[in-house]
Amino acid sequence: MKKVHSVLLEAEKIKDWMVEIRRDFHMNPELGMEEFRTRDKIVEYLQEMGIEYITGVAGTGILGIIRGREDGKTIALRADMDALPIQDEKAVPYRSTVPGKMHACGHDAHMAVLLGAARILKGKQEQLKGNVKLFFQPAEETVGGAKPMIEAGVMEEPRVDAVLGLHVTPEIPAGEIGIKYGQMNASSDSIKIILHGKSSHGAYPQDGVDTIMMAGQVLTSLQTIVSRNVDPRSSAVVTIGTINGGTQGNIIADKVELVGTVRTLDSDTRSLVISRIEEIVTKVAEAMGGSAQFIREEGYTALINTDKIVDIVKANAEKVLGLDKVHVLKQASLGVEDFAYFAKESPSAFYRLGCRNYKKGIIHDAHYCLFDIDEDCLVIGAALQVQNVLSLLEEEQWSY
């Protein structure tokens, strides 16, 4: 019989406590920058554990810190706090009690894992050579709380040497994890295209400049960016999600608005795609006798893991869970994750924590009204984060 790793046993002892925390958060979800009850509950738990903390970080964010017995590195662990505007349709006792709001992306689990890891690490405080920072971050799903937390100084005094994050995923069974070297998540940009033409009666199209036709040409031309301008070995997505224009079926439309998103995995491709969109939009409009406005709103940066830190996470997971429980992911996600801003500041690793369980019917994707997790994953997440911190605080394990 395989011997169970000691840190897994420690996490198993507090499983019921973590489940209780997760279910409380799940029943009381709050949207980004509205996480007031969530903040207050986290503060209660930190106070009960005797962990030093600061509130009001980037709004509803919290910074906790566990100071070791002597100086050393500082490792940060991050959990996001916000829920989504989705109606919870699950038939479970811990179903959301707030109409139209739900933890449909697992942030309730992330907070429970971080509090579990904090409890175990607090018990080892006298053994720690260095510090552990706890980032409870608001608004990952909306405006992004990571960058404001960094601007508020959470990476300094003491300076964070490495930062770790995780995200539950139903793509992987509970008890297993997925790691990714290098590029983990894409960058994002929101785009708005406003086409201007000239209105006229539909019976006399020669007197107008038709922005409906112009929009059709723009849409067709935008599809050539990925297929003909982006290196096939790179990745990019250009999606137009809404199109609005016109007032009557017999009137040539003088204005059309298109709104979409761009996803890329590296800065060069990002610049190329944005440049080509603006060029196509402007020149197609001019060629058809109209004009165009192109508005770009820069979103999250790409999340790029540090290979040496991923190596440590991989080694720990193989030791704690077993070799067959660790999956090396080959492809990056074109979804975005604002942990990327922490990753830009310090060496980092962000990994996937499996939460699927077919036997329990836990099979639904995130951002869906039936999303749930196998709560056994809370034990796995807490244990791994503790072991990762302990390894990273050992001087001989890595250096930068």
> How many structural domains does the protein architecture include?
2
CATH topology grouping of the largest domain: Aminopeptidase
Tell me the structural class.
alpha/beta
* Percentage beta strand: 25-35%
Topology order in helix (H) and strand (E) letters? HHHEEEHEHEEEEEHEEEHEEHEHEH
Q: How many strands appear in the DSSP assignment?
A: 16
**Order of adjacent strands in the largest pleated sheet:** 1-2-4-3-5-16-6-15
Protein name: Amidohydrolase
Domain Peptidase M20 dimerisation: 189-286
What's the arrangement of secondary structure elements?
Blueprint: H1 6-13, H2 15-27, H3 36-49, E1 52-57, E2 61-67, E3 70-80, H4 107-123, E4 129-137, H5 146-151, E5 162-173, E6 177-179, E7 183-185, E8 187-196, E9 200-201, H6 211-229, E10 236-245, E11 251-252, E12 255-264, H7 267-287, E13 291-298, E14 303-304, H8 307-320, E15 326-328, H9 340-345, E16 348-356, H10 376-392
Parallel strand pairs: 3-4, 3-5, 5-16, 6-15
Antiparallel strand pairs: 1-2, 2-4, 6-16, 7-14, 8-12, 8-13, 9-11, 10-12
Characterize the structure shown.
The structure is a single chain. This protein has 400 residues and is of the alpha/beta class. The protein folds into two domains: 6-185 and 302-397, Zn peptidases (Aminopeptidase), CATH 3.40.630; 187-298, Alpha-Beta Plaits (2-Layer Sandwich). The protein has ten helices and 16 strands. The strands form four sheets. An eight-stranded mixed β-sheet has the order 1-2-4-3-5-16-6-15. It has a four-stranded antiparallel β-sheet with strand order 10-12-8-13, covered by helices on one side. It has a two-stranded antiparallel ribbon with strand order 7-14. Helix 2 (15-27) runs antiparallel to helix 4 and helix 3 runs parallel beside helix 4 (107-123). The chain is elongated, with a radius of gyration of 24 Å. The two termini are 39 Å apart. The mean pLDDT is 97.
